[in-house]
């Protein structure tokens, strides 16, 4: 059925050391001439080259045209028979024709607003030319581009240019998924960076004319990334030039092509009037991410796509560490854990669960997941926790020294950590090969001055994996005394058994444990904890993460009790009140404390505990708790709202951004007691997108934004990134009963350019983010969503498949909703000609 298995890996039987490509660009008929220098590694092997949707014009070996009997052409590639191959090394030349303008899948060479660009990860290069499209074939590329565009870019260094042509040479061997070409009418914002060994690097941020006033932040982020990788990992940039290009039509966030990173424009363009604090933070983080790939991805790449988390988990870990250093570390950690739980734990709990290193796939694009990326990053983080800072750095140094220039596996990676530390990490490796989130049950005992913590770990079955042996879990624990003092500072317990106890001796009184500090392992902690104890930790824990966690657990338990009609008590409201105006706490941290858990998160928790999630009850409970919180603490909220106003011109730094975040959380709560008066005032006064959109969001929630939404649309209609926000925000935050109709109205708006992935995601993502709206009982949300996936699939299967994950939670809900979701999935699955991407997803979703 077209499934690829890890166990089927075989090395490529040829080496390919040099490639020369010539592109003669034309929208409907681009010619690609490829010259491959090959030599056999095994005698008698056929030469297989991947190739899809290519019109073969000519093929020759060592200058001699091949006869039709010499090779076989299929839908997926070209195979030259062994008899037609010379014995030693040889040159294969092909010429093909492709049509970038008709490429709506946005993989390979395509066009975006008149500009040519490429996206080749994972398997796009086979839509450009016949080639061994696999990451373990690494070659040096020389590229000539001919075309009537003023700017013609490829990887590496420019080696010649003239009217209508340019040549590029990349000295570093690379797999073809890192090849890139850009040709267009572009303008650059230029900068430089001097590396630690004193080399000067030219930096360019290329955008469409008119966008150049929104590039400064991106340029600064490149410079900060380069500096940070030198300081934190000793990694220096290795070319004289670093180009970054912003593209309006892009399936993913960004791409780390060697020396020529290509970005979704939403992760580059920013000005105070058009981008929010959140956008700025993401832009810096993703620019860091792609830049850090230069070493973890480009210099050391993956042997095959099963090893994707080798580069992605590690590079996410690196970008998280970068943001942590650039901004507020504890706040960044909490944000990352919230994202992990809401996205990755959700994936692990449903039909799409898979290990960070999967062992089979039909379509690799379906495995660019939060498990590979974010859980992959958690696994790297645990290695650092186990080895300590110095041990981790030593292992990373060994990784770079040993594997530079290679295409590697998770086994290579683990071996580096074993060799650097002298430890046996075979049990730890299960984090890479086993799917599912471990649950950790905790019990405690105190007697005669000895405090004992006992843990039991278990992981539920996931598709294809019924039993889960115990994993090595690093559990960071500290103990607090009755007055809140730290009795035992943080230590890392290493749990290796299914059940294991740890003893702490010589304690005068029963301590309060702070378990899993810093979220030291991606597990679900199950512990009967009283509200008093949570309030105690919220007030006293020295670990910022667990302090926040205590508050959020209180809020979660309160909300769940409310959905079940139980008396929720006032512990949460009592405990949180004291912290709202506590100036000793960072505003960004207080903003996180005051933000109630997402509805989807509550549904996830209810289902994990064996209940049935009721989206309407969850929505109502959250509204009620917000109202109670606002009514009870109006004075503190109001004072904090005033105190957090940021004076002076807008700056996207962590400090003012944190104040704005707290201010907007207060604003949202205060709107429940002031009928939106403050939000109206802020919307009128705001000089930046963070506050305008924040105020507008509050008014949307109150149903008081129609006039403003119309004016906002008129003001920003020529700015696609802002219009994306206009789509998302009103759908995500409108009253749930209106969401499906509003989505339908917006889909009919002339600005709904559904072939643009950002715009499509803006609307569909907005709808699925409106939990109770998407899950409306009559199924209107599901139907609308499925209709559009069906419509997009023939054009852009990758994005359609990605968005189908909105349905992965069907098992949480009541029989009626379950049936409706499954009916929509079956309807999608039954479409004639469904893509491999979406048919794999629906098959897995239906289980
Ligand atoms: N390799 C890319 C990234 O994660 C995905 N296109 O940066
Ligand atoms: Zn990446």
Describe this structure in words.
The protein is an alpha+beta fold and 847 residues long. Among the domains are: 1-101 and 111-178, tricorn interacting facor f3 domain (Immunoglobulin-like, Sandwich); 301-433, Neutral Protease Domain 2 (Neutral Protease, domain 2), CATH 1.10.390.10; 452-521, Immunoglobulin-like; 705-847, Zincin-like fold (Alpha Horseshoe). Helix content is 42%, strand content 21%. The protein has an 8-stranded mixed beta sheet, with no helix packed on it. The two termini are 16 Å apart. The chain binds diaminopropanoic acid and zinc ion. Pfam families: DUF3458 (PF11940), DUF3458_C (PF17432), Peptidase_M1 (PF01433), Peptidase_M1_N (PF17900).
Topology (elements, then pairings):
Blueprint: E1 4-5, E2 14-24, E3 30-40, E4 47-50, E5 55-61, E6 64-65, E7 71-73, E8 77-80, E9 90-98, E10 108-112, E11 115-119, E12 139-146, E13 151-154, E14 157-162, E15 165-174, E16 181-184, E17 187-194, E18 200-207, H1 216-233, E19 241-247, E20 254-255, E21 260-264, H2 277-292, E22 301-302, H3 308-326, H4 329-348, E23 360-361, H5 370-403, E24 407-408, H6 410-421, H7 430-433, E25 439-447, E26 450-458, E27 473-480, E28 486-495, E29 499-504, E30 512-515, E31 524-526, H8 531-540, H9 544-563, H10 571-580, H11 587-594, H12 599-608, H13 615-632, H14 634-643, H15 654-674, H16 677-685, H17 689-702, H18 706-716, H19 720-733, H20 736-747, H21 757-769, H22 771-774, H23 780-792, H24 797-803, H25 815-829, H26 836-846
Parallel strand pairs: 2-12, 18-19, 19-21, 22-24, 25-31
Antiparallel strand pairs: 1-23, 2-3, 3-9, 4-8, 5-6, 5-9, 7-8, 10-11, 11-16, 12-15, 13-16, 14-15, 17-18, 20-21, 25-26, 26-29, 27-28, 27-30
This protein binds diaminopropanoic acid and zinc ion.
């Amino acid at each position: 059925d077209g499934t690829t298995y890890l166990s089927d890996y075989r090395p490529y039987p040829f080496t390919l050391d040099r490639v020369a490509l010539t592109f003669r660009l034309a929208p409907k008929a681009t010619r690609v001439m490829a010259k491959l220098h090959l030599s056999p590694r095994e005698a008698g092997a056929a030469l297989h080259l991947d190739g899809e949707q290519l019109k073969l014009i000519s093929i020759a070996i060592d200058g001699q045209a091949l006869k039709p009997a010499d090779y076989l052409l299929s839908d997926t590639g070209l195979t030259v028979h062994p008899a037609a191959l010379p014995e030693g090394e040889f040159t294969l030349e092909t010429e093909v024709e492709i049509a970038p303008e008709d490429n709506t899948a946005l993989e390979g060479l395509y066009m975006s607003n008149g500009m040519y660009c490429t996206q080749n990860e994972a398997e796009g290069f086979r839509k450009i030319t016949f080639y061994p499209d696999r990451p373990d074939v690494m070659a040096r590329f020389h590229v000539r581009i001919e075309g009537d565009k003023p700017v013609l870019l490829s990887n590496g260094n420019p080696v010649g240019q003239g009217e209508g042509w340019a040549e590029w040479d990349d000295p570093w061997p690379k797999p073809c998924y890192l090849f890139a070409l850009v040709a267009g009418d572009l303008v650059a914002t230029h900068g430089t960076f001097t590396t630690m060994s004193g080399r000067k690097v030219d930096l360019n941020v290329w955008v469409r004319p008119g966008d150049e006033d929104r590039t400064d932040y991106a340029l600064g982020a490149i410079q900060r990334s380069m500096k940070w990788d030198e300081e934190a990992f000793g990694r220096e940039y290795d070319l004289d030039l670093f180009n970054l290009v912003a593209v309006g039509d892009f399936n993913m966030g960004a791409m780390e092509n060697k020396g020529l990173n290509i970005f979704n424009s939403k992760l580059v363009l920013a000005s105070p009037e058009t981008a929010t604090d959140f956008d700025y933070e993401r832009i810096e983080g993703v620019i860091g991410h792609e830049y850090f790939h230069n070493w973890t991805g480009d210099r050391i790449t993956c042997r095959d796509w099963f090893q994707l988390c080798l580069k992605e988990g590690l590079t996410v870990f690196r970008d998280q560490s970068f943001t942590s250093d650039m901004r507020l570390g504890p706040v960044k950690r909490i944000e990352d854990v919230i994202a992990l739980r809401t996205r990755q734990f959700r994936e692990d709990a449903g039909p799409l669960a898979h290990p960070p290193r999967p062992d089979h796939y039909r379509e690799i694009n379906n495995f660019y997941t939060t498990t590979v990326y974010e859980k992959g990053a958690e696994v790297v983080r645990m290695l650092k926790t186990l080895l300590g800072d110095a041990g981790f750095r030593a292992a990373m140094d060994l990784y770079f020294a040993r594997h530079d220039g290679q295409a590697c596996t998770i086994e290579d990676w683990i071996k580096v950590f074993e060799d650097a530390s002298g430890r046996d990490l075979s049990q730890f490796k299960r984090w890479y090969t086993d799917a599912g989130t471990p649950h950790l049950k905790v019990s405690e005992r105190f007697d005669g001055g000895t405090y004992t913590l006992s843990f039991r770990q278990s992981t539920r079955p996931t598709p294809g994996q019924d039993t889960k042996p115990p994993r090595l879990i690093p559990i960071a624990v500290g103990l607090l005394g009755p007055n809140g003092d730290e009795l035992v500072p943080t230590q890392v317990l290493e749990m290796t058994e299914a059940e294991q106890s740890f003893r702490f001796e010589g304690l005068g009184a029963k301590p309060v444990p702070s378990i899993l500090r810093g979220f030291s392992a991606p597990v679900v902690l199950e512990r009967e904890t009283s509200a008093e104890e949570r309030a105690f930790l919220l007030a006293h824990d020295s670990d910022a993460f667990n302090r926040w966690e205590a508050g959020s657990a209180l809020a979660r338990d309160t909300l769940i009790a409310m959905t079940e009609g139980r008396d929720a008590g006032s512990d949460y409201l009592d405990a949180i009140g004291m912290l709202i105006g506590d100036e000793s706490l960072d505003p960004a941290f207080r903003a996180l404390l005051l933000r109630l858990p997402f509805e989807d998160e509550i549904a996830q928790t209810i289902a994990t505990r064996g209940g049935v999630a009721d989206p309407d009850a969850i929505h109502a409970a959250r509204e009620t708790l917000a109202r109670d919180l606002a009514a009870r603490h109006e004075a503190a909220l109001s004072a904090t709202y005033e105190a957090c106003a940021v004076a002076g011109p807008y700056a996207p730094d962590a400090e003012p951004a944190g104040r704005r975040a707290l201010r907007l959380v207060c604003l949202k709560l205060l709107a429940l007691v002031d009928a939106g008066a403050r939000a109206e005032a802020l919307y009128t006064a705001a000089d930046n997108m963070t506050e305008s959109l924040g105020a507008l969001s509050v008014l949307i929630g109150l149903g008081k934004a129609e006039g403003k939404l119309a004016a906002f649309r008129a003001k920003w209609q020529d700015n696609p990134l802002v219009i994306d926000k206009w789509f998302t925000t009103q759908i995500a935050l409108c009253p749930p009963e209106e969401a499906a109709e509003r989505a339908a109205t917006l889909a009919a708006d002339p600005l709904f350019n559904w072939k643009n992935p950002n715009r499509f995601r803006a609307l569909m993502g907005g709808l699925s983010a409106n939990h109770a709206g998407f899950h409306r009982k009559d199924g209107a949300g599901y139907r609308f969503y499925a209709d559009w996936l069906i419509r997009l699939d023939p054009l852009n299967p990758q994005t359609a498949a990605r968005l189908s994950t909105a349905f992965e939670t069907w098992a949480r809900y009541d029989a009626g909703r379950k049936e409706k979701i499954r009916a929509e999935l079956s309807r999608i699955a039954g479409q004639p000609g469904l893509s491999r991407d979406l048919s794999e997803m629906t098959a897995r979703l239906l289980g």
